[in-house]
Amino acid sequence: MSRNFLQKLFVLISVLSLALFSVQASAEKNSKIGQLPAMGWNSWNTFDCDVDEQMIREMADAMVESGMKDAGYEYINIDDCWHGERDQDGNIQVSKEHFPSGMKALADYVHSKGLKLGIYSDAGNTTCAGRPGSRGYEYQDAKTYADWGIDYLKYDWCDTDKLNPEGAYTTMRDALHATGRPILYSICEWGDNQPWEWATDIGHSWRISGDIYPCWDCGYSWGSWSSWGVLKILDMRKDLNLRQYAKHGQWNDMDMMEVGNGMTAAEDRSHFSLWAMLNSPLIAGNDLRNMSKQTLDILTNKDIIALNQDAAGVQAMRYIDAGDLNVFVKPLMNGDWAFLFLNRGDDILTVNHDWQFNIVKDDLTGRSIDFNKQTFGYKGLWKSFSGDTSQPLQLNIPAHDVVVLRLTPKG
After folding, report:
1. What residues contact 106, with CB distance under 8 A and at least 6 apart?
2. Residue 324 annotated as catalytic
3. 282-284 vs 39-42, strand pairing mode
4. CB 315 within 8 A of CB 279
5. pLDDT at residue 74 above 60?
6. Euclidean distance between CA atoms 275 and 177, whole angstroms
7. Looking at the domain 32-308, which fold is it?
8. What is the CATH code of the structural domain delimited by 317-409?
9. Could you say which of 79, 122, 211, 362 is catalytic?
10. Per annotation, catalytic residue among 122, 156, 362, 401
11. Shortest CA distance to 231 belongs to which of 219, 244, 220, 242?
12. Tens digits of per-residue pLDDT, 96-154?
C-alpha cells in the first residue's frame, strides 16, 4: 500500500469524522430547543396565502409592543405561499413581489426584536397551496433556511404520493441537523400515520389532527378534507392515550390557535386553557396588530401559560368525562396540580365537586392525591378566587366556558 494512498485515506477519514461530528453537534443543539412547547404566531389562520414582508415585520412589532413577547411568545412563523421558483441550480427563492428585501433581511429584522423567524415547507413535490415543495431538495432547502437565519420549520404533508412519512420526515430532520443551525422542527402530517408512534426522535412536535377551524364543535368541509372545531380536535384522539408520548422536546400538536378569530370569549378561554393544559404548542393565529383587549388578555394570561410551560412537561389527563362536564388534571412541579373544569354544553353547568370523594391517581407519573389525607389550597386562574380542598367546590360554569384552578399543598 503506497504512502500517497495512505495519506489520501487519512484525509478522507478525517473529513468524514469531522462531518459526523458536525452532524452530532447539530443534533445536540436541536435537542436543546423545543424542550417546552413552542410559543409564537403563525400567518395561516388569518392571512392564508396573503403574506408579505411588511405584514410580517408589523407582526413582530406587535408581538413586542403588545406584551406577548414578555409573556413568552417568541416565534413569528410564515406559513405557505412565501415561495418564488427555484433558480437554475435548484435553490428555492422567495417571492420577489411579496418579499423584495429577501428572507435574510426579514430574519435579521425579526431577530433585532429579540424574536425568532419560522418558515414553511412540504415533504411533497408541492406545498398545499401549490408552491415548490422540498421533495428531493431537503438538504439544499435546509441549508438555504439556515443561511437565511430561520429558526423554525413547519413541514407539511401535501402532494406526498407513495412517500413513507417516517422516512420523509427523517430525511428533513437529518438535513436540518447537517446545517449546524438549531431549527425547531414542527411535523404537520395531520396524525394520519400515527406520528406519535415514530416521530418522538424526529420532530419537536407533531400534529394529531387536520386543520383547526374557528368554531366550538363543528367540522367544515372543503370537499376532499375537513377542518375541525375546538371540541372535535379535543376528542379526536382521546381513546389513544397520547399523553404517554409527550415529554420534553416531544409534543402533541393540536394545531395553531383560533383565539380572537370569531368565537365567543368563553370559547376562546376554553380553547386557550385546553391547549395549555395538554401541552400543545401555543401558536397564535389572529392579527396581532388590531386584537381586542379581551383577546390580548386571554393570550397573555401568565398563570395559564405557566401550566403549558411547566418544567415537569406532563400533559394533562382527562380525569372526568361526564356528558357536558369534563375535568382535566395536570401534575406540575413542586407538588402542585392544575384542575380544569370544562362545560361543553350550551347552558350554565352547576358543579359540586367533592375533593375528598375524588381521589386522583396518575399512572403515567406515579403521582396521586388523596384529599382525605392532604389538603391543598387553590386559586382561580381566570376569575380570582381561592379556597382549599377541605370543603367541596361549588361552581356555576357558563356555556362553553372553563374554570381553571392551581392547587398547592398546604402545610
Report:
1. 53, 56, 57, 99, 117
2. no
3. parallel
4. yes
5. yes
6. 29
7. TIM Barrel (3.20.20)
8. 2.60.40.1180
9. 211
10. 156
11. 219
12. 999 999 999 999 999 999 999 999 999 999 999 999 999 999 999 999 999 999 999 99
